Amino acid sequence: MNVIEHGRGKPPLDPHLKALENEAIHIFREVAAEFERPVMLYSIGKDSSVLLHLALKAFHPGKLPFPLVHIDTGWKFPEMIAFRDQVVARHGLDLIAHTNPDGLRDNVTPFSHGSARYTDIMKTQALKQALDMGRYDAAFGGARRDEEASRAKERIYSFRTSDHAWDPRNQRPELWSIYNGMIHPGESVRAFPLSNWTEVDIWRYIQAEKIELVPLYFAERRKVLERDGMLIAAGDPRIALLPGEQVREEMVRFRTLGCIPLTGGVRSTATTLDEVIAELEIATVSERQGRAIDRDQAGSMEKKKREGYF
Amino acid sequence: MTAQTLSQSLLPGEDLLDIDPNPQTAGRQARPLRFITCGSVDDGKSTLIGRLLWDTKAVKEDQAAALRRDSTGKQNELGLPDFALLLDGLQAEREQGITIDVAYRYFATDRRSFIVADTPGHVQYTRNMATGASTADLAVLLVDARSGILEQTRRHATIAAMMGIRQFVLAVNKIDLSNYDEAGFQTIARAFREIALSLGVRQVTAIPVSALKGENIVMRGDELMPWYSGPTLVEVLEKATQRTGQTTGFRLPVQRVSRPGEGFRGYQGTVAGGSIKPGDSVVVLPSGVEANVKAIVTYDLVRNAAVHGDAITLVLDRPVDVARGDMIAAIDQRPMTGRAFTARLVALSPDGVVPGKRYWLKAGSRRQRVLLRPTSQLDLSTGNWDDANFLPVNGIGVVELDFEDVAVFDSYETNRDTGAFILIDPETLNTVAGGMIDGKRSKSGRFDALPDADRATVTLPARLLEAFLKTEFARAHAGEIKVTGPEEVEGE
Ligand SMILES: Nc1nc2c(ncn2[C@@H]2O[C@H](COP(=O)(O)OP(=O)(O)O)[C@@H](O)[C@H]2O)c(=O)[nH]1
Fold first, then answer.
1. ipTM of the complex
2. CB–CB of B256 and A32 under 8 A?
3. What is the pTM of this model?
4. Closest CA to ligand 1's atom 12
């Protein structure tokens, strides 16, 4: 067998990124070896792209020993779906796309049910369905501890009960880099190889490793409308204009990617990776600000996690 | 007087980092430094961490705004938000006003990035501290300039040292409330250095700081403390050393065997000590089969060397039987193998650690059954090791480990990766203890880190013998010294 070398001619990573990469690879291998049915949650965003890249490195020269699951709410940007399909084809991945059939049947939308219930049904419940259907006992996710205050104490192996609930009082201590992967039947873990990465690390790594991203991350003239202080992408016929709203064209990019009506863009002129990083390094607004779900109520992320959200 | 740096001499296994003096060259030239902060309640730990995040611009504007919205409007006189709220992550914990477990915070300067393990200073502090300290290279111990060293400080220092931390920073906080008194600071610094030395820690830096006003944290506090010319806290952190795990030979705990296709068989794992290159001779443990390294495969390149910390795939020159849980090691610098070891343990679970119970032990990628027998427990208030046969939660003790199958370890002192383990309760499957290998026990039950001939003999009168055997020093060096009473005859 000929071993492919992907890094010919590429300068080596700096020691900081190398250490983060090594740690993530270690976690991937450990979970893959200890659990019977691992799966990777793939959301198409920048963190997922980094996660996938690290997984490919961890198992090289072999293929990924697990499938990917994408929870498709039906409200993702078309650019995201196109990008996903390209990535799957290029790496020969086994991808399972899942949409909550109950939500589809009941026509659950952010507008009809409100963002909190919509998120619960189309994301949280959908994720549980997908995990149950595959009887997965470990799911990789791209969450980082620096993302949000309630994640600061999250473990690398985050334990979930048989109904996927997360109990902050019942998480195992983690010492050194020795992970306890023993669980009872029905229980599962969410494993977070990017726990110790910051947003800047993610961007620097994407740059150093030349990881491809959905073009939505780069500024372009886009049709947007302003709602609740957020710049929302316009153009989807299902998004009706409210009185007083109008569609404008502006140079915007997105810092995180989710469902169109819940994802706010930022005004920006950064059209390249270097420019995005330059903006980031002087930015004073954290990335989750662009997400409507975090602003619903205090402690909202923690609440969602207890209910089974990633 | 200048910096309280007692000694910059390096311990085996530590390397002074070459910090790039010119940070605009691409990337950070060091791995993230992991450190832990410890202090008693109200010493100002939250304020200190908040200050570090704030002054290095790790707090984003919307987070600060959320803080102001959440808080009762409480702000200090400098118009900064209440830092404790920034750090209290979980809603449940906010409601109860308690801090459970360890929170990790991230910040960076131009030179280096940092991961702080933030542990609560009260109740469950031993197990929380042990968890946070297990991955830390440095401990910042906080004291209030007005009260000085407390019993708590000594406890924190003891735990940090036991977990393998060899660099301490003493942050003498609230120096503004002591009128920036130099003499008081020096007294505290001296007392602390003595404690550190008694624990075998020689790299100690004491810094007078005001976390609230931000003096000597990121910015200097020269105006009010002209007498202090030592480094700021961040300067010490930027220059701190990291263990490189080079004191033992090559170690690769095998995580998985990769067989993607005909003719390829690679052993995947993270180098846990030493270094390796193609052509090197290795031994597979516990089987003892020998082979040579044929190639080191990574996604990027087939490499000509790998060092401690690298996640690699190793290919050997001949078909040998290697499975997950095995260790591939340097042929001429082998780890200890055996069925009986001695270790120190920190009990993490409410049930404590019970003698005669069979636990699962996980070390590296290897999991095996172990029978446990506690022999003594550390009394954190006196520093003595007293006889014990059970370890309650938060108890620190010495235990004898007996395995059914051969186990493979280095001593924790020489290698934190291959000398550490966790214990898993076979029923609850919870992690109930963290452990550190001291050495191997021979059949007679004696503990041997060194062969007899290499041990130093300590002869003591009977009245001192018992007290000496209880000391930290005697425990820490149990495998290197041979303690006798005057009446005992040399050699067994
Ligand atoms: N004057 C002064 N007050 C401080 C300083 N550091 C902390 N404090 C105050 O001491 C109290 C306890 O601080 P906090 O950070 O909550 O302590 P913790 O319990 O150790 O986290 C708070 O009222 C702080 O504002 C300092 O350097 N100077």
1. 0.89
2. yes
3. 0.87
4. B42
